[in-house]
Amino acid sequence: MKLDKISKNLLEKIANLHDIPDGAVSFRKNGKGEIVRSTPNIEIVRKEDGSGIDIFVHSSCQHEACHIPVVVSENGFFDTVYNDFYIEDGADVIIVAGCGVHSNTEAGHNGIHTFHIGKNAVVTYLENHLALGSGQNKMLNPVTEIKLGQGSKMTMETNQLGGVDYSDRVTRACLLEDSTLTVHEKILTSRFNVAKTNFKVNLKGKNSKCNIVSRSVARDESEQIFKSDLQGKNLCFGHVECDGIVLDKAKIDSVPKVSAHSNQASLSHEAAIGKIASEQIVKLMTLGLSEKEAEEKIIEGFLK
Amino acid sequence: MIELKHIYYTIKDGDKEKTILEDINCIFDDDCVTAITGQNGSGKSTLTKLIMGIINPTSGKIYFNNIDITDKSVDERAKMGLTYAFQQPITFRGITIKELIDIASNEDNSIPKACEYLSKVGICAKDYINREFDKTLSGGEQKRIELALTLAKCGKCIIFDEPEAGIDLWSFERLNNIFEKGICYIVVSHQTRLLERADKILVLDKGKIKNYGISAEVIKHLSSYQCKRVSED
């Protein structure tokens, strides 16, 4: 399959792909599954109503990647996709998702991903979101539902790389015994962008662990709202860290909620939001960078 | 060469103006290590920050190699060849030591070349080169890396604000060895070893120059509390 220029550019940016990759893949463009390919270890099945795919990751899958990028390049098009992942016991899979929107009018994508993860599985989930084009209402609203089985580990890296006018990302997870969820989120907003993030994690199982780290940079007059809700009902550990840099007239709100319903639950939240430390800018200027270059370097490092 | 002419620096102190530096006139020569010393609050760090452009004088002129740099920004001065090592090193998130060395030297150094700068300040380079320059490094490590960055910058005028603070004696000896010929070094310090190493000493007292001259002469007139030795511990 030959990729058009816009798709190629978006895929490079959201998934570091220069072409349709080998292995398990589903490429969805403007609401249509352009390509679906399975492997013996990862079976991808189109839903009959065309609303998405079911992905079956077998126990035999060991450190194998599955790419499921989405592109919306049609002006005015809003796509909603439902992807369900069934991860068998002991599987180890890397899922590269993400969505790129290129539109000169309003356009958007709602990706609803549900993970059913068995016991002792390892899931790495990478999700980048980017919007390009001159349109003023480019929306991305990812919803991720996770049921993390006993002894399983999931690492989620989610990045909003810029250009998204409005996003409302919701992540809900239920962690069973001895399971671990690690989330790294990075969000960059500018102009009048609005980005909402909402994490709700139920540390249901004994000895379950959750660590969420959110780093965000808000520029111009953009707004970000970060909400987290950790619930511990057992011997468990949960930590949420929200660090933000606010520039210009932007705003960042961090709204933590931690609910310990057991004296063995250890839950914490920390947030540090502010401008770039002026001494950091001055230090880089003493090394020869201009003020603007110094600011960019600090932001690049912060979001690295 | 740095020349200061009639430098005044005042700050607001409530409704009043407080003079931090008053009519400073002096020349810091090339191929010379000049130590600035004086009691706390005498204006030492303020003076070096003025030279680097981190703060601006209330009045007066600053010349670098006979060019008026009074109105130039920090980065413009850095590009002309001035550089500055902070008393408390500034750390960053997500920026590696190698990246900072590349910024300082304005080139994409090979790993061995970047490591050379670290080795000069007594750091086992391979353990550090790809580390972030963040708060997980100890104070002593940060200080040495700060010094390495000034070496990478290859400046014509290098300003150190209390370079001996927070480093051990062994590193202090290394510090003494990093001074190179042809450079104008300005070093804020209380330490006798550094004052003895300096070619000239400028003594500030309550924002004014109290004494300025050849170090062997000036040091005779310094009271014991104005200079102290690095602990042998």
Largest interface, Cβ cutoff 8 Å: A-B, 21 and 24 residues
Supply the number of structural domains of chain A.
1
User: What would you say the CATH architecture of chain B is?
Assistant: 3-Layer(aba) Sandwich
Strand order of the largest sheet of chain B: 6-7-8-3-9-10
* DSSP strand tally of chain B: 10
State which percent range the strand residues of chain A make up: over 45%
Largest sheet of chain B: 6 strands, mixed
The CA-CA distance between the termini of chain A, in Å, is 33 Å
Low-confidence stretches of chain A: none
**Mean pLDDT across residues of chain A:** 95
Total beta strands of chain A: 22
Count of domains of chain B: 1
Topology pattern of chain A, helix = H, strand = E: HEEEEEEEEEEEEEEEEEEEEEEHH
Structural class of chain B: alpha/beta
**First-residue to last-residue Cα separation of chain B:** 37 Å
Low-confidence stretches of chain B: none
Short description:
The complex is a heterodimer of chains A (304) and B (233). Chain A is mostly beta strands and 304 residues long.
Describe the fold and architecture:
- Helices cover 11% and strands 57% of the residues of chain A.
- Chain A is mainly beta.
- Chain A has one domain (5-276).
- In chain A, the strands form two sheets. In chain A, strands 3, 4, 7, 10, 12, 13, 15, 17, 19 and 21 form a ten-stranded mixed β-sheet that branches.
- Chain A is globular and about 55 Å long.
- Chain A starts with a helix and ends with a helix.
- The mean pLDDT of chain A is 95.
- The model of chain B has no long low-confidence stretch (mean pLDDT 89).
- In chain B, the strands form two sheets. A six-stranded mixed β-sheet of chain B has the order 6-7-8-3-9-10, sandwiched between helices.
- In chain B, helix 3 (97-105) runs parallel beside helix 5 (139-153) and helix 4 (111-120) crosses helix 5.
- Helix content of chain B is 30%, strand content 29%.
- Chain B is α/β, with parallel strands linked by helices.
- Chain B has eight helices and ten strands.
- Chain B has a single domain (2-226), classed as Rossmann fold (3-Layer(aba) Sandwich), CATH 3.40.50.300.
- In chain B, strand 1 (2-13) and strand 2 form a beta hairpin.
